[in-house]
Amino acid sequence: MNSYPPELLAQLAPVMFVAGLDEETPSQPSAQISAKGNDFALLASRLRETLQTQRKVAIWQPEKTKTFQVILVDKDIRFPPRKLVAPEDPTYTASHSPLSPLTPTSPLHPDGLIAPIWIRKHTSLVPSVFVLFLRIYEYSPPNATSSPLDVSDITQEREREMEERKRDTELATEVAQRKRGTNERGIKLTVVLMTTRKMLDDPTLDTRLTYIRRQSGLDSRAALFVLSPVSQSELGEFVKSLQQALYEPALEYYTTHSKRVRRKRNRHSQASFPIPIQGASNIARPLRPEGWTVRYEYKMACFAEFRGEDEVALKHYQDAHSMLVVMFGSTAILPPRTKRWAEAKVLADCINLKICKLYLYNNEHALALSHYNTHIRIFCDFSRGWGIGEETFEYWSWIARQYRVLAELLEQGTRSTLVLPTHRPTIPLNTNFMASQHNGGGRSLIPSTLETETIRSLGINPRHALQHPGFYYLMAAKCTETRRERFLANLEIEKTLVTTPGFSNEKKVDHLTIILELYTKAYELFKKHAVVNPQNPTQSRLTLWIAYRIAQTYYDSAKYDMAIRFFERIATIYRRENWDSLLQPLLSTWYACAKELGDIELSIKLLVEMLGHDVTNAEESQCVEDLLAIMKSTVPSSDDALVVDVSESRPIFDHSVVFWSPEAKVGESEAFQLSLVAPKAISISSLPISSLSIHFSHTTSPLIVRHRHSKDSKPSSFSFIDVGHIPSSTERLEEITATLCWERGGCFIFSGSISSQFPTSIKIDRCVLHIEDEKWKIQIPVDLTALRHYTSTGWLASVEPPRFLPVEREISSSLSVKHRSHTLEISLSHELPAYLDEQYPITIGITNVDSRPFDVVVNVLIPPTEIDGAVNTIILGEERSSNFIKGVPFGLLDPGANASKTLYLVNTGAPGDRVIDISIQSRPPESTADPVEPELDDMTETTRLLIVPTVDPFKVVQSVSYRRGLEAWPGLADLDTFDGDKWNCTRTSEALVSTRIECAGPWPLQVEDVIFERKEHEGMRFIECSADDSAASASEYHPGEEFSHICRFALSVSEDSEDEASISDSGTYRIIWRRIQKDGNFGSQSSTTISLPALQRPDEDLVALLSIPSPAILHVPIPLTLTIRNYHQSRSANVVVHLELEPSDGFIVSGLRSGRLPILMPGDEEKFIWKLIPIECGHVKIPQVKIINKRPIFTGGTEPTAEMITKGEMVGIVNVRLDPLAQMPGQPDLGLGGGLGTVLVLTK
After folding, report:
1. Contact at 8 Å (CB) between 1210 and 1192?
2. Mind giving me the DSSP string for 1157-1194?
3. Contact 954, 997 (CB under 8 A)
4. For the purposes of burial, counting CB atoms within 10 Å of the CB of 533, is it exposed (0-12), middle (13-18) or buried (19 or more)?
């Protein structure tokens, strides 16, 4: 931005003059100065430092804080006159400002627009606020008196008042004189009186301050402050409050100026001006209305910017810029190449930058860039009309300046608060959604194929999207390069042209330094803003291209060493990523630098590398001649051969390596062909090639093909060279001779056979081309494993004429040598399916049908299964494992011999398929495993995958029934109740467990024994089991046959709520059995465990047992007994019994119909007996009996309600004849239809 006046670019802010801090305060006695001077000197120093750090003059300052641009001045500073005549002069009102175009002595007279001195006047010479720091007088008596009532004290007090009034009057006079100067300009004057902390507590201070303010004529608001020496933090708060108090008066000052300028603009817009006469160029022409409009709009924009009103300033700047465009459109108003034309052009550029900056303050990036591009486009069109088109250096100089200024503005913004937009690729169209809309019957939303492809191919035009500053530095550098080209073109015809001042100034410009500076800034910024991809952390292409332009500029500046440094770094990346089109011009310039520096070896290396690239210009086609000239005219620095490594770059020859077969066995020969194709654009036939060495991966010495020198040897386009057989040995291979002279694009094929005595992967690693003459020895390695320069020519099947067979293999450039595989026959014998819990035999048989003996070992793996509860075990020989058995030897098998072993599989858990992976490894007796190089091990592995279906041997069905004890309970007073043995009474129930076992598999079984294994439990007692007679179940069972067993258990009542109501482990059946095989033999003995189901312990509180004989005889009385038992451990029961006899009932009842039982204590029972006389025959319904417990269970700690006591709780009645058929204890009887059952009544 140094090309433009800084006043026209800087961000404007309210200006504050501060006086009184750069000199001593009013004179004081020497004693006072020594005591207090240091404090106030330190205060003034801190004030100067704090005020000057509030705001600095800068171009980018978007912050809207109430701060001033502070300028330290003298107290006696004088403001520049508003007009050239004194106010007392009668012509004062008609006169103008010294900077007005109407003033003859003005630099803008007669038709100037705005001079930078006008901005400087309002930023450096005239403030909006004037702050004056003064020291208020403090009286100090010469001698201290002993008593305050002495006469001398009264005298001293009077002297003090008089002295203070005198000094205050002098201070007020000084302030009043300063105020007269500020009032003439409308500037706010504020006085800050500095005093000591002691003075702040003086009661007369307020009176003195009021006197000073009135005598000096200061305003009553924000005009007088008092400050004492304070700390740095408190001083910062004071400065902040001072600026906030004076910010509003400053705004009023600039608002007044804006109103004044607006009135002038309105007057000038209504006035008429004469049109200048064409041809009268010597006559001074006054400023036209368009110029006055530009002048006033610019002034109002500046004053709005002083006030911090960016939107208002933007509007005025845009109006000024539009009017400038109108003025530039007429050569009568602004003739080209004049002083005023140049000033207006600078003003237009600065206004354009201001507009863009204000847009960027508001994050309106698109508007800022659009206005900047519009400005450049308009003035480019103007330049063509002015005769400053693309063919002139002035045109490109101006465009480069525009891009550089924009880049510098963005760079300053990004260092502060500017956030550049992020540009993303266009979101692809959702054609599926559009198709669904179209198929739905609505209006078609699918564009045509051409429109879709067009939208997808659209990107972002860099000119229409705001980029980071590096992009515009790059544009400025490119424009400067074009500027230099135009200048050099004019320099060649300088003698035939008239030299202009602009051309003379252009000669003084160091174009290359400017270009280098711009490219360097662009390079740094592109690296800073580059988006790094973690998967490909390489520099962007454009960044590397900029680095290449930097190197090219160094070359043009004759700084060859710096250019070479850049070329080395850039070429490394271009080689690695195969950017040959970019590498070619780089190598050419690099070679020119090396030639200028006299680096012979580097020149040779670059020339050799250039041989592998296509020719792009006439200079590169001379690389062979240059190489030969260097070899003839120079001497190497050492006797060693110069190795030119072009492994990362494009080699001289395009190559192809083809092996006839992808694999070969140890000791077998396989054919190979190596083809080397010379460059098509450059002839290398003149190179003094002495030999070609071919390096194989399985040999230590290379195959050397020596060049045959003869008079008849001519360059050949095709040659077939037989190199013979290449064995795997450490001895030196025999050299062969051939004519190594290629034509342009010539193809030489080296064919032969190759073998190896050990397993390996054979490749042709590289070829080394040897170039020798009398002085130089140059070796050029060609990496044949690099696929980037691989050219598939196929397999040469015929020499005359040359005919190639296509090679369809993906990788044909390597040969894999392996051992011969071993021939073994594997057999697995077993009978499917397998049973759970048995040792399932699988016979593994191995027969050696090879001609060599082998040592055989077997590995067995049983993979994990997803079957629930499955635990599988494999047994082979003496090895036993649940997952893997390794290295079971089968011995040494001679040719024709066989061996077998039995593998046992034991399966538990659920049925399902089991998978077994069997691996048979064989190796010769003399071979040993090599963990370092396992590919050298002569071992063959044969695998078999076996799937074994597994089923249950038995199908089990179990049922449980319960029965209550009907014996009478002992009374509560009986001693047996308290003996502690819960099995000594009849308060138990019985559980009968029936187990039916069926032979479910496809194979018959021999059951040898059934053993019941009882388990002890405190709530259960075993009674008997039918399995105790083991001979009853020992028999042979075929599929579908079954047998059963029954167990009886006594169950006690739960004595505690924490006791387990369910008994899950009451006992198990263990069945010992064998499989009956097809030949009638028995398999290994197996054992299957069957667990009994869970038993439920009785958990009852109150129950009624009803007993009635059946059948009955007509008219013969029968007893109906009702036993009510309280099983609860701690709660008694209040029981009421009701017998409800219906007229339809077939009985006559004798006994209690309704009554209350005595309180039924815990563990007690009570009996009721009725006599029933049947009067009907058949199944007669038992009369309905209801039992109610009047003491219901309740929770919550509240008393039972009356309704609960009245209704009570129904007690279940169980018919003991139906009790064994009930489901569970504690539940009401089932299947009775809500009644108590029936009695069969017979006649006799």
Report:
1. no
2. PPPB-TT-EEEEEEEEEE-S-EEEEPPEEEEEESS---
3. yes
4. exposed
Contact 1238, 1218 (CB under 8 A): no
Other C-beta atoms lying within 10 Å of the C-beta of residue 646: 19
Confirm if 208 and 168 have CB atoms less than 8 A apart.
yes
Overall average pLDDT of the 113-123 stretch? 94
> What are the two backbone dihedrals, phi and then psi, of residue 558, each rounded to the nearest 5 degrees?
65, 25
Place of tokens 């190199």: 723
Structure tokens at 941: 């592995």
Q: Are strands 898-907 and 872-876 parallel, antiparallel or unpaired?
A: antiparallel
Q: How far apart are CA 520 and CA 470, in angstroms?
A: 9
Cα gap 347→4, rounded to integer Å: 9
Cα separation, 906 vs 840, whole angstroms: 6
Residue with tokens 């199944």: 1179
CB 1050 within 8 A of CB 1063: no
Strand 898-907 and strand 912-923: the pairing is unpaired
Reference 626, options 608, 644, 652, 613; nearest CA is 608
For 1100, other C-beta atoms within 10 Å of its C-beta total 18
- Quick: pLDDT tens for 88-106: 777 767 778 888 888 888 8
Q: Quote the CA–CA distance of 378 and 359 in Å, as a whole number.
A: 20
User: Looking only at Cα atoms, what is the longest distance across the chain?
Assistant: 162
Which pLDDT does position 429 carry in this prediction? 45
Task: Decide: 1241 and 1113 in contact? Cβ < 8 Å.
Answer: yes
The pLDDT of residue 676 is above 60: yes
Residues ≥6 apart with Cβ < 8 Å to 642? 601, 604, 605, 636, 776, 777, 778, 779
For residue 1179, give the nearest of 1236, 1123, 1122 by alpha carbon: 1236
Angle, vertex CA 839, rays to CA 1014 and CA 1037, nearest 5: 65
State the residue for tokens 């006159």.
81
Residue 460, Cα to own-chain centre: how many angstroms?
A: 25
Helix or strand holding residue 893 (H, E) = strand 884-893
- Of the candidates 988, 990, 1103, the one whose C-alpha atom is nearest the C-alpha of residue 1055 is 988
Tokens of 395: 């045109």
Residue pair 885/860 in contact by the 8 Å Cβ criterion = yes
Q: Give the whole-angstrom CA distance, residue 590 versus residue 576.
A: 18
For the chain, percent of residues with pLDDT exceeding 90: 41
Report whether 1113 contacts 1244 (CB < 8 A). Answer: yes
Q: Are strands 129-135 and 188-194 parallel, antiparallel or unpaired?
A: parallel
Of the pLDDT bands very low, low, confident and very high (cuts 50, 70, 90), residue 786 is: low
pLDDT tens-place string over residues 590-644 = 999 999 999 999 999 999 988 888 666 665 568 888 999 999 999 988 888 999 9
Instruction: Report which residue type is found at 51.
Output: L
Rounded CA gap, 920 and 667, in Å?
26
Assess contact for 403 and 472: CB atoms under 8 A.
yes
User: What is the torsional sign of CA 705, 707, 710, 712?
Assistant: positive
Residue 782 exposed, middle or buried by CB count within 10 Å (0-12, 13-18, 19+)? buried
- Name the 3-class secondary structure at 175: helix
Q: Which of 208-222, 608-622, 792-806 has the highest mean pLDDT?
A: 208-222
The CA-CA-CA angle for residues 665, 671, 672, to 5°, reads 115
Decide: 648 and 572 in contact? Cβ < 8 Å: yes
Interatomic CA distance for residues 747 and 737, integer angstroms: 17
What pLDDT shows up at residue 1165?
86
How confident is residue 323, by pLDDT bands cut at 50, 70 and 90?
Answer: very high
Q: Closest Cα to residue 920, out of 841, 853, 861?
A: 861
> 804 near 795, Cβ under 8 Å?
yes
Q: What is the mean pLDDT of the chain?
A: 84
Phi-psi region of 629 (alpha: psi -120 to 50; beta: other; left: phi over 0): alpha
Query: Does the model's pTM come out above 0.85?
Result: no
